[in-house]
Model the fold of this input.
Amino acid sequence: MDSLNGEYMKCVCGKRPLDIVMSHILKIMMEEGIVPETATLRRNSPVPLSGFYYSGLNPQFIGEESLILLHPDFTGEVASRLMNEVPEVKCVLKGNPQITAGQLDKTSDICHFEILEGDDTQINLMRTLLGDKIVIVKKQSKHHIEVAVTTEDKLVRLHNYLNNNDIKKRTAIDGMCGLGALGIYLLKYGFEKVIFNDVNPEMIDALKYNLEINDILDGYEIYNCPFEDLEVDNVNLCVIDPFPNVDVDGIVKKAEEIADNVVII
Ligand SMILES: C[S@@+](CC[C@H](N)C(=O)[O-])C[C@H]1O[C@@H](n2cnc3c(N)ncnc32)[C@H](O)[C@@H]1O
Done:
């Protein structure tokens, strides 16, 4: 255990295997008494979120300042030790991973995880079936946890839906747009106009940033309201991407009223 420090098992490239990094983190959590001495990687590890994801590369070796950690029992002292002693850690968040950061539905409050130390920016560079990449930047303390491969999978499903259905490419809505990946994809796919909407104003801030860094300068409108209250019509396609286990009856009804085609991703 004593040899498990920031140099242990480091490759000449400066990276270490992910399981060694997680063992190092768990060792510090044990020493600080926030997990029992019998803790195991499977049961007691904090949620590790990569600060940078590049599609197609899922490294088992990770470099300095590349991990964002989330655990409900982290304290200021543990966070300082993790940041100072584990070179791969770039941010430590306190919070319950079972809770969704952001806003679950139109009646819920906006939830955040607490940043104890570091920078919670996560950058995802995702490949698409159009050959183009989409960059999505999020702040992991206030934006939902959705690993990049899940977003990529949604983009593939959307692509297949569009290829298999004859939909006019005039106007589309990304009705619960979050960070904007689906709507950005619709613009890249060739829609003349995409309406982005999200109930959470913090998502709209992130969306604007993501539009800019993807070089999307026009062809869109942005709304910040519950989808159920959106006042638009004559839409060719409405894309709905709700959080799991949220009642979407009202949202689907509204989508069917305003759009010729509705897809729930
Ligand atoms: C699963 S996330 C969407 C993820 C998104 N496709 C992305 O790429 O980030 C669900 C989103 O729905 C939004 N939302 C929840 N209820 C809503 C409502 N009634 N109207 C509009 N947006 C809503 C949340 O704020 C959240 O951003």
Observations:
- The chain has a mean pLDDT of 95.
- Residues 18 and 60 are 5 Å apart (CA to CA).
